[in-house]
Structure formats: structure tokens, C-alpha cells
Amino acid sequence: MHYILVRYGELTLKGKNRNVFERQLLKNIKSQLKPFDLNIHKDRNRIYIDEVATEKVEDVRARLKLIPGIHSFAVAKVCDNDLDTIKKVALEQYDTEHPEFKVVVKRIWKGYDLLSNDVERQVGAHILINNDGLPGMKVKIKKPEQEVKIEIHEDKAYVFARHEQGMGGLPIGTAGRAVVLLSGGIDSPVAAIEAMKRGLRVTCFHFSSPPYTNEKAFEKVKDLTKELQKYDRSIKLYDFHVADLQIALNRNCKDSLQVVLLRRMMMRICDRFMDELGAGAIVTGENLAQVASQTLGNMTIVNSTVDRLILRPLLTYDKYQIIELAKKYNTYDISIRPFEDCCVLFLPKSPATNAKLSVVLEEETKLEYNNMVEEVEYDVFNATDLEATDSLLENYLD
Amino acid sequence: MYYFDYASTTKPSPKILDLYLKLSNDIFFHPDDTNKSGKLMNEAKNIILSSLQLNNTYDVVFTSGGTEANNLAIIGYAHNFTSKKHFITSSYEHSSVYSSFKYLEKQGHEVTYLKINKDGLVDLEQLEASLQANTVLVSIMAVNNEIGSINNSQQIKMIINNYNSKIVYMSDVVQAVSKVEYDYTNLDIMTISGHKLYAPKGIGAVVYKKEIILKNTIFGGAQQDGIRPGTICPIASVTLAYALKLEMANLKQTISHTTKLVNTFVDFIENSSKAHLNVTPMGPVVSVNFTTKALSESLIAVLNNMDIYASTRSACSKKLNVRSRTLQSIGLSNDQIDKSMRFSFSHNTTVEELNYLIQKLEHVLEIY
After folding, report:
1. pLDDT for residue A290 is more than 80
2. What is the pLDDT of residues B117-143, one digit of tens each?
3. How many CB atoms are located within 10 Å of the residue B55 CB?
4. Does the beta-carbon distance from B19 to A392 stay under 8 Å?
5. Which of A98, A99, B109, B332 could lock B336 by a disulfide, CB 3.0 to 4.6 Å apart?
6. Which chain B residue has its CA at the smallest distance from A215's CA?
7. B137 neighbors B170 (Cβ within 8 angstroms)
8. Active-site residue, from B316, B353, B360, B368
9. How many Å apart are CA A364 and CA A358, to the nearest integer?
10. Which residue has the higher pLDDT, A353 or B357?
11. B233 catalytic, yes or no?
């Protein structure tokens, strides 16, 4: 049996709201660990996960690492409270990668026949003797590399290993909701995760142009959404079909302005749904000057479309930083699959890098976009929909 | 028909034939990533990986069968090297592995052929001693096709890793899948064949770690990322995968059934004055030799007349008209080799069939 102690970092900085943050984190942890059917509870500074069976520990650890708001956590081994057993388990838990250590003992049960100091000394000596010759090995009371923590209860003891780093950030849901524009590229899923890490709950909006876009491109988006759902299972994916809009733009408006005009249409579609979703912002993966539509001038024009807050978490990142994050978040391999999204359809030969607002507004008078935005067709997918098998073979098996 | 030659080939199962027919009617596209045939092949790959308990650090390339798979795995890997390298294999590999190494020797590479001990297992001490600075690949079959002995992948992996974990560990697992418990996660490259596990003939696969580069050994288009040009039958690849999945799901029952059959048959052999085990069976293959006047080729013909099918040796080496390397490697005399026979059982084998075999064999041995 194991036992996990979760520490939350930045939350401790928040004054009166702290309780709200803590409760949200507890709720998020419970929901992420629901399949494991565990007892999860909190006290003033910590969240505890009781009685995790050994075969579940790895999976639980993996999930804890994907929960924003967790600063660090430590898996403890539950064992008998006699000194020999504690010594043995403490030695097992001792991490030889970080040799400087100290032993910290807390007696929850004061009836234990040894004092905390005595247990500390004995366990410390046991670890020292058994790691004789390990380079850098020593007891260090002030700021050691690791603390071997032992809690003694009446019928058991907890021996903690080194703390493992969590995601950090704030619990999802504490900062409200945002709509994320998910393209299928490298940037937007990273932006989504960065937004979630800052406490936002997200809804993914994707724009496709069936029948002119490859179904494979949409599969990418589905797979990316599945990755995002590892952080928050309640995430929904909206897929808006914008082929008619694109064709109308293409037929009626200047070629060089197609990208800016399309993005403005996307903003209008977002705007139409945000109130009913309770979303307070639009998150994009835009990155300053990366492509034509992402210049200051063009972003200003896109911003002015609707009266909404647009957040661009990756605005100032270097591409390689975004790629590194994408790899860390497991979205990179999906994003680089070679299928193109709707933006590539009718891509102008030379898109305007600095469109003029007056010209853009002039172009938009050439089409009745309001109705098209109002009547845009879309599909919504939740986690269960995305998990449903789309196996071709299944259809042929009894 | 009384069939005791499952190590040689199997009859496609009704489920697999049914699937083959249905799919053939509907999905005939040239397989590439954008259509249903390509999707089917990708599904087949995933089924193969999950059936072998392998994760997505592995990939699959389909071939025309086990022989091509072994050629591609060994020669395709060796083609990464322009300078002389050292390879290690065993002296009782299937001819498709053995001949690939003979080819590499002709190309100027060095090959060590490991000895086999009395139990029919590869000499691991010799393996340890043979590893050298320019060794790039160790190829040791999982289960021997003629005597059924099982080489421990965990031990082999450990010996290789202790020396240099960059050396690739390849294994011909054709005779292991669906027949014995085996840990495939220790292997870097492995080869399988459809017709050994109730899928049709003409389909096989190389399963390999994605980080390993295999160079094509035949020349053509960009099918299967250019590793194996030529249009593979996507439906055959699905039947291979699905047959593997079905067999692996039933592996425990299969083993429990075949173990009982083997035990009964071994009892018979041990009590017979004219029959002797070549090696203690470790799986559903029993290799025996007879102290008869007649050679096993003649005995097989007689048994065939009684509607019994077994084999004298690996069908793939028969026509070469040389004595079995496998049986030589475990130290049998020429006479013993010439009078050896292989019986192999499966979950399809019934107790009645086995009793018939024992009864007829008893009779034949009495006469010859």
C-alpha cells in the first residue's frame, strides 16, 4: 500500500481566495483520479491520497503530473511501525541520486516507545552505513537534497520518498473559461495547455472545410483534443464547417486579404458562442511575426473584429521553445502529421502582412457574412465521442 | 486427416477466412495512408503491437512471409554499415536466418554461430564471450522450429546489455507466437509469419523498434515508407493481425491443452523401446528418433497412408538434401538424424487424434 501527499505551490500566495483554489484543486484531483476509486481528502496545507495499491501507483503518479495547481507530490510507503521495518523501508525509499539527506520524523502517535530524535538518528545511521562509499553521501540538516520523511501512527508508519515535481500553475477552473482556437498545428495545443495551466477551463474550436479538407486533418485535431482531455476530461471540441464562408470570401474579396478576413470570421463565430459557453476570452497559438496573419498590424485588425479579450500565451516565444513544450506535452508528434487544415484552402499567393483596416472593412461589405456566421454548421465532440472507436475492422467482426 | 504438423503450417481458421472474404469484397484499394486499405493496414499494425504487448516505440512492416521478414530484418539492418561488422547468431536458426548470415559473410562481414547445448538451448556463455567491439546484431530464435526449445529472451537481453546496449537483439519468433509464453518486450526486432498462426500463407511481418533503421532489400516504390516496396495485400495483413490477436487471447488455454497432449505423447515415447526423445520438449513440439531399420522418410510415407501427417524436419530445408543443422547441433549421430521425426500439436488437436497417432505409431514401430 502507498499513500500520496500532494503539495500545492503558488496557491499559498493567494490571500482570501485561497480556499476557492484549494477546493477546486481537490475537486480536479478527485475527478482525474476517479477511475481509481481512492479516498482523497485535504487538511490546511496538503491533499492526501490514501491507500493506493502498488499496481496503481504508476498510473496515479502519471495523472498527478498532469494536474495544474500541484506543485509537488510524494509517494509514501505504508509499513509497520517497528523500528526495523521503518529502517528497511527508509533505506529503500532513499534516493541515491540525491545523496545529501536528513531524516525527519513526526510522531502522530505520541505513545510510540522512541522519541522522534532517536528514530531520526537510528534511521539516518542505517542509511549511512548501507550507502557507504556513495559519492557526496552525507547528512545535512540545512537544505539537504532530500528529506526522508517518516510519520509514525499507532498502527503503521509512512515513509516518504523525494518530492516529485508537479505541473505547477493554478487549478483548472479557477480563472474562468476560454475558447481555444485549435488548428492542428504545433502552436495551438501548446497555447491551450499553457492556458489551462493558468487556471482556465477551455473549449476547443476548430474550423474545417468539408468536403474540401482532408478527413485526416480533422483526425489530428481529434487526437490533439484527446491529449488536452488528459488534463481536463470535460473539454469539448467544436468543429465548425466554414467552406461556404471561405468560398464566399474567395469569390468576393481581395486575394491578399483572405487570411485576415477568414480570421475575422472565426472571431465572429467565437463571439456568437462565447456567452452561452460562459467563456471570457479567446486563446490562440499566435506567435508574433511567425506568419503573415501574425504581424502587429494584422493582429490589431483581427482584435478589432469583436469586443472580446484575445489571449496569446505564445506571443513572444521562440519557435524552438514552442516545439520543446509541444514535445513535453506529447502533442508534437500529432501536430507534425502532414495533413493540412482549412487555412491552406484558398491560401493567397502573397498574403498582406500589413492590411489596412479601412480596406478590410470595405471588403467585408461585399458579402452578407452575418447570416453565414449565424447559420454556420458545426459538430460537438466530448471525451466519450472521441474515444469511440472508428475502427474500420470492427465493422467486419462479429 | 490426423494432422500433427502445426509447426510446419496451420489451416486458416473459419473466422479468419470469413474475415478475408468479407474484406476482399469491400476494400480493394491500393493501400496508402489516405484510403480504407491504408487505414486497415494501420489498424493491423496496432493490433499486432498490442497482441505482443509492445508499445508505440515499435513499428511493423509487412512482408510476404517469415523468410522475407528474416531477410529484411538481418540484411536490411546490416545495410546500415559500410565497414566490416560482427554479427552473432546460433547454429540452428531457420534457413532464412542462416542463409541471410551466410550472405553477410560473403559481403565481408564476420559472423559467429553459437553452439547449442544438450537441452537444445543456445550456449549463453559462448554468447557472452563472443560479443566484441564491432558487434552490431545478435539474432537468436525464440523457439526452435525442429525441436521446440525456448531461448530465454530476458537472459539474452541482459548479456547483450551488460556488454553494450546499442547492439540490436533480433529474434525469429515465428514458432513462439501463439504457441508458448514469451516476453517480446526484450526484443529490438522480431519476425512473424501468418500461416503458422491460422492466417493465410503469403503474409509475414517485421516488428521493430522505431529507432532502428531498416534498409529495403527489394527495390521499387515508396510503399511502407520504402522499407518494403511492392503492394502488400492489406487484407492478408489484417488477417495476420487478427489471427495473432485471437491466438494470443487464448494462449493460456492453448498451452494448458497442448501440455496435456505432449505429456501423454512423451509418456508413450518413453515407454516405447524403439522411440527416443531428441530433447525434452518445452512446448508443443516433440522431436523423436526411432531405432528402426527404416529411415524416417519411409516411416512418414507409411504414416501418410494412414492419413497421419507429421514431418521429418523443417519443410524449408528438406529439399536441400543435407542433414538437419538443428539435430546436428544438439549432438545427434547421422543415424539418429536420419531416423528423426517431428510431431507438433495445437489447440485443434484432439485427444482422440492423439490416441489414433499413438496406436498407429505403436503398430508401425513394431513392424519396422
Report:
1. no
2. 999 999 999 999 999 999 999 999 999
3. 8
4. no
5. B332
6. B34
7. yes
8. B316
9. 10
10. B357
11. no
* Cβ <8 Å between B242 and A397: yes
A45-101: pLDDT as tens digits: 789 998 888 889 899 999 999 999 999 999 988 899 999 999 999 998 888 888 899
Whether B316 has a pLDDT exceeding 60, the answer reads: no
The three-state DSSP-derived secondary structure of A221-235 is HHHHHHHHHCCCCCC
Give dist(CA B50, CA B38) in Å, integer: 19
Nearest to B77 by CA among B212, B188, B206, B182: B212
The ipTM of this complex is 0.72
The C-alpha atoms of residue B311 and residue B4 are separated, in whole angstroms, by 8
User: Which residues 6+ apart lie within 8 Å of A71 measured at CB?
Assistant: A7, A8, A9, A10, A165, A166, A168
Distances (CA, A) of A46 to A93, A173, B258: 21, 19, 56
Of B22, B33, B44, the CB nearest to A396: B22
Read off the C-alpha cell for B240: 495476420
Of A214, A392, A396, the CB nearest to B39: A392
Amino acid letter, residue A69:
G
CB of A392 less than 8 A from some CB of B: yes
- Name the amino acid, one letter, at A48: Y
How does pLDDT run across B157-182, given as a tens digit for each residue?
A: 999 999 999 999 999 999 999 999 99
Tell me the CB-side half-sphere exposure of residue A7, using CA atoms within 13 A.
Answer: 12
Question: Which residues on adjacent β-strands are paired with residue B207?
Answer: B60, B190
R_g over Cα of chain B: 21
What's at B208, amino acid-wise? Y
Spell out a b/e string for A355-388, using b for 16 or more CB atoms within 10 Å of the CB, else e: beeebbeebbeebebeebbeebeeeebebeebee
Give the pTM: 0.70
Q: What angle separates helix B14-26 from helix B234-249, to the nearest 10 degrees?
A: 150
Amino acid at B186: N
